[in-house]
Each structure stands twice: as structure tokens, then as C-alpha cells.
Design goal:
elongated
């Protein structure tokens, strides 16, 4: 007698890891509502990778969930240098806390939209012409995204998604080598495409 097909139930929790690509864009201005010219823009990209965990609840063909994610990266960017003056930026990590709403196109395949909060760590250096001013800041913003998740066994799933994170226009305080401070307004967004492997644990995974 053939074995019965596996039963897929999305209600439960999961942990896992992810890897993908990330892109950041920054614009600089000395004024909050000023024109972003002369100090940028900057574009940066790098491989990203990290960990995620969350929980889902299935109701009919709909899956509702929450998830937290932390990713390490090494994005570097540099604006146009004019007479030896310009900015460089490094992003070591970003993190998200989001909700998800998914629809099952098959019992083991969902497409979803996601949204929530995002955080990013920035390290900035201003050259004049050598390293002259420095700033490190953790910024908060909002995330929207879309993706698909395939449960290829009752306890394992693979997710692919695109996320857009907006961090608005923030006044960042720089400190120079003499201890004096100044402010630069930096507008920033980050995008990521991620592939995740999830382990779904507990009695919910396939019951």
C-alpha cells in the first residue's frame, strides 16, 4: 500500500538562515529640505546573510504571520569627491520586524506580502582630504516586501522575497578630529533579495 501524501499545515513557528544581495542608496544635504547635490549620491551593494525566526497561523487558504530577521553585510559606498572632499559609508547590518499575509496557491506553496519596521547601522567618514569627520548611527524606518514560500516537506520550507526599506531623511551628527560637531542630512533606502531556509518545529509542522 502506498504511503499517504504528507499533510501540510502552516500553523506553527520556525527558525532559519538566509542569504542574498543588498543595495543601498543615500543622498546628502546640509539642510533638512535642501537640494541633494554636491555631497552624493551614494550607491552600495554587497552580499547579505543572517538569521530569521517567526510564527504563522493558517486559516483556510490564508496564512498570517510575524517574523524577525537580522542580517550582516559589508556594503560600502562613496560619493563624488570634489577637491579631495567627500563621504564614504559602510553598512555592517540591518534588522527587520514584520507581519506577513500569505495566500496558498497550493497546500504547500504561498505567496505573501510583508510590512513592518526596519533598522540599519551606518558608519560615515568625511574626507578633507584625509579622514576628518566621523559618524555612526542606527536608523529606524519602514519595510514593505513581497515573496513566495514553498514547504517542500512538512517541517522544512524555502522562501524567496524582495524587501524595500525606507529610512527617510535624518540629521546625522558628525564629530571631527578636533572634537567639533556638525550636521549632515542623509536620505537613505535599502533593498534586499533574500533566499531563506526555514525549519518548522513543534507538533504544528505536519499535523
Amino acid at each position: 500500500m502506498a504511503a499517504p501524501p504528507p499533510v501540510y499545515n502552516w500553523t506553527g513557528c520556525y527558525i532559519g538562515g538566509n542569504v542574498g544581495g543588498g543595495w543601498a542608496h543615500k543622498d546628502f544635504s546640509t539642510e533638512l529640505n535642501g537640494v541633494f547635490t554636491g555631497h552624493g549620491p551614494q550607491n552600495a551593494s554587497a552580499i547579505v546573510g543572517g538569521l530569521q525566526g517567526g510564527c504563522d497561523y493558517q486559516s483556510g487558504m490564508w496564512v498570517f504571520g510575524v517574523r524577525g530577521m537580522f542580517d550582516w553585510t559589508d556594503m560600502h559606498g562613496a560619493g563624488p569627491f570634489i577637491a579631495g572632499k567627500g563621504y564614504t559609508t559602510q553598512i555592517p547590518w540591518f534588522a527587520t520586524a514584520t507581519g506577513r499575509v500569505g495566500f496558498l496557491t497550493q497546500p504547500n506553496l504561498q505567496i505573501f506580502v510583508t510590512g513592518g519596521g526596519a533598522w540599519v547601522r551606518d558608519h560615515h567618514v568625511f574626507f578633507d582630504p584625509g579622514p576628518f569627520e566621523f559618524a555612526s548611527v542606527t536608523r529606524s524606518g519602514a519595510l514593505v516586501g513581497v515573496g513566495a514560500e514553498w514547504m517542500w516537506s512538512p517541517f522544512w520550507s524555502i522562501t524567496i522575497e524582495y524587501d524595500y526599506m525606507s529610512f527617510g531623511n535624518k540629521a546625522v551628527v558628525f564629530t571631527n578630529i578636533f572634537g567639533n560637531t556638525g550636521t549632515e542630512h542623509i536620505k537613505q533606502d535599502v533593498q534586499a533579495v533574500l533566499v531563506s531556509l526555514n525549519y518548522r518545529f513543534g507538533t504544528w509542522g505536519g499535523r
